[in-house]
Amino acid sequence: ILMFDSLNGRTCLHYAAYYGHSECLQAILSAAQSTPVADSWGFARFVNVRDGKGATPLHLAARQRRPECVRILLDSGSLACASTSGYG
Fold first, then answer.
1. Residue 73: is its pLDDT beyond 60?
2. pLDDT of residue 31
3. DSSP assigned state of 17
4. Structural domains of the chain, count
5. Which residues form the domain of 39?
6. Does 5 reside within a domain?
7. What stretches of residues are ANK repeats (predicted)?
8. How far is the C-alpha of 1 from the C-alpha of 57, rounded, in Å?
9. What's this model's pTM, rounded to 2 decimal places?
């Protein structure tokens, strides 16, 4: 779950949000809550992790117009006020 790709610095959460795979997104978030990720890395930190350009999964879902993914991420604690530092 915490693996980052070397090209964009994105996690599986970023890709699920970007491509609108809401069921996959939900499965990733459920797994993150019930695995050591929640304890060692922190669930809120995982949900709001930034890619190499500063975008969170919520930014990507919103930019790609994926309303179901946006809702899932907001319900899971994504920060709607997070800045992208000039991304897109």
1. yes
2. 87
3. H
4. 1
5. 12-75
6. no
7. 8-40, 53-78
8. 14
9. 0.85
